[in-house]
Amino acid sequence: MRFLLFILQRCAFAVATLWLLSVITFSMGAMAPGGPVEVMLGQHADPASVARLKKEFGLDQPLPVQYGRWISGFVRGDLGTSYRFREPIGPMLRERYPITVRLALTAGAFAVLVGAPLGLAAALRAGSWVDRLATTTALTGVSIPAFVLLPLLVLLFSLQLRWTPVTYEGEWWHLALPAVALGSRPAALVARMTRASFLETLGQDYIRTARAKGLSWGRTVLTHAAKNAVIPVLTVLGTSVGYMLGGSFVVETLFGIPGIGDISVSSIPARDYPMIQAVTLLAAAVFIGVNLLVDILYGFLDPRLRVAPTP
Amino acid sequence: MRARTRSRNGFAGAAGVAGSLLGAAGLALCLAGCDPPGKGAGASAGATKAPGTVLRLAQLAEPTTLDPAQVQDGPTIELHMHVFDGLVRWTPENKLAPALAEKWEVGNGGKTYTFHLRPDVKFHNGRTVTAGDFVYSLTRSLSPKTASPVALVYLNDIVGAAEYRDGKAESVKGIEAPDERTLKLTIDQPKAYFLSKLTYPTAYAVCKEAVEATGGAVTAESMIGAGPFRLTEYRRADRLILDANKEYYEGAPKLERIERRILLDGGTRHDKFTAGELDITDVTMASYRADAQNPELKPLLKQFERPAVFYLALNQKAYPPFKDKRVRQAFAHSIDKAEIINTVHEGLPRRAEGIVPYGVPGHNAGFKGLPFDPEKGKKLLAEAGFPNGSGLPPLKLSFRASVEDIRSTALVVQGQLKSHLGVQVELDETEWATFLKKRNTGEMPFYFLRWAADYLDPQNFLSTMLHSKAPENTLGYANPEFDRLCDAADVMQNEQQRFASYGKAEAIAVDDAVWVPIFFQKDVELWNPRLRGVESMLMGHLPHKRTYFESSP
After folding, report:
1. Domain span holding position A158
2. Where are the extended beta strands (E) located within B250-318?
3. What is the ipTM, given to two decimal places?
4. Number of folded domains in chain B?
5. CB-side exposure of A284: number of CA atoms within 13 Å?
6. B16–A179 C-beta distance less than 8 A
7. CATH number, domain with residue B141
8. Which of A74, A191, A250, A251 could make a disulfide contact with A138, Cβ separation 3.0–4.6 Å?
9. Domain assignment present for B328
10. What is the mean pLDDT of chain B?
């Protein structure tokens, strides 16, 4: 019951956050110099044409009226029509979002499946060459941005070795390079957090007691330790994946991945306000959702963090 | 406190290795999730076409619209011109030639154009194109429902166009179809440049029943024209697939298919070309420097003149010293155009003496503008009361942000003004939409910008941009003699006389130094060496009607 309340509370909070975000984004758009009409008309913006287009787009209405019109459509599921493409935004996003999600989740999987073992190995062999190697690798991963790493990977695997095409050509394994490029920084963060967290947890008294009582490594001790140590790692992972689910402009653009990365970013210079609103709220909603999931996951791992009372 | 967690049984090492293997396996599993819909079909569709019959191009950005009444940007226009066709078209010699109109007469003192359509042209859905289709398409371009930002630029000369757009009339008076094969257009004044405006997509024939079936908007389903290719598939953000229209009235294209891959990044496009995955790609200045040294790529480079002029604008409305012609001329004499062309643009673009670009009918070949003469510049500035620039209020040079070559040019200009004239200008890099707004309100005193032809006529460069009553003229420039010459030339019917009149006007504007034209645009591309038959004209490539691949490498 308390769990349900918890969910409801979080949802209400999410809605309030999203609404506030929409007001802020709308206001910032209204304050930006130059609007969609000027961009559409380019150098042909004589006052008569500007006035005419503004009227045809409803941009001559006072701001609260424009916002009201937008939000009343939005809550009914109508994400509006893009000024730039003159098409409904809902279907546009629906077509493009799945591959952004696939890329983000793949990068996240890479991050955890490479970063966690690295961090664990470093923690268990703290101070040894394993540790140093893992830590250096992590440092490199966190320092090289995706827009540097991806072209390097393409240079090696696509241009020199000819193993992969230069851009995404539809096959599932084409996402490997961009996922690695996108996921290398989260992987490094996961590795560092795993190492730090395990070091701290394994240093706890109850672990020493368990070992002293004769419990072996492996199943028993590490499993118990992991449940606690993993929590901060989950936080890092959740934030990283949540962020990537908002669309990765650089990786998608460089590798020709048909996701939402391009239209989200390029709608700003184009002053495509409905699109800017829609993608901002989408990214925010997804981010909030991922964090909620992580919070629920905490409850399963550590009873002390549970939101429902333990029996 | 260090945890006493060292394991001596190699568990940690094993865990690390196992983890990496697991990671790779997991990654593979993740990637092998269900494929996005439609992708599989496309991959196999490409495989069924014989090699050497598919032209692989890059689309520089997502097509902004599939509606020819709305389209404005070059990359999208290149898409439209393959799917649709209009009354007239450009030839590789930059002349107008019949397209769907096999002949036409100009009457009523140059105000009436009567087009006779070919009888045998069909839309992609099999229906014959009639004059009624052009009435529908032109009217639709001007419709307030379509709300096209661009239609009035190209069609406003037609009688009744503005009234219809503003909702004051039910139809456009000047568009008539006396019979199925005759289209009559009446314009407000005998403007000889009207015909070239009809080459623009706003005058393409769209298929009425298809467009109405999709609610009046042109979607991928209703993008049906009479052009040499038909749109088979549009995978958003990914690619467009065009298949040859075998019934095309000029004969089926030699190519089976054109694939336009949406690739936003210039470096990516370049890499794809060198990997053999693209047949034509654009080349930026940065790439050009490397490519020109590369023995494999150098022979594949091709250059194209474009009808666009890059210039500095001197706005006397926003900067009082510019009201004095001597100050403007002083600035003009201090610009070393050769240095800009050679250092920033590798000597590629053509120097601009006048305003009307090379290749545009009416371009003045022998004309010499204001020369690079720092001594004269300094003298003029001193005469105007600002010796060595002293007394001049602060001045900003504005230019579009995020384009490397533009920024470099602005830097060089800043340096030249300082060393040749003693004037220190501040650089003002401005985001595009903001730049546009400031230009429209006439608040930028001094800026670097490009003007590209809407249509190939000096009218578009002179009357449109610098006439005192032209809305695009936000520089406060008003020269009665210039206006008189342009007004006269706008309605002359004899081409030689027209161009002579425009030429005189151009000389006045250049001498007035309201614009300091620096260079005309030149594009560079890399081409697959096996490409043949690609036709090009000043405004861009022509539709790939006769393009093919040489089979022997």
Report:
1. 96-269
2. 257-262, 280-282, 301-314
3. 0.83
4. 2
5. 19
6. no
7. 3.40.190.10
8. A191
9. yes
10. 90
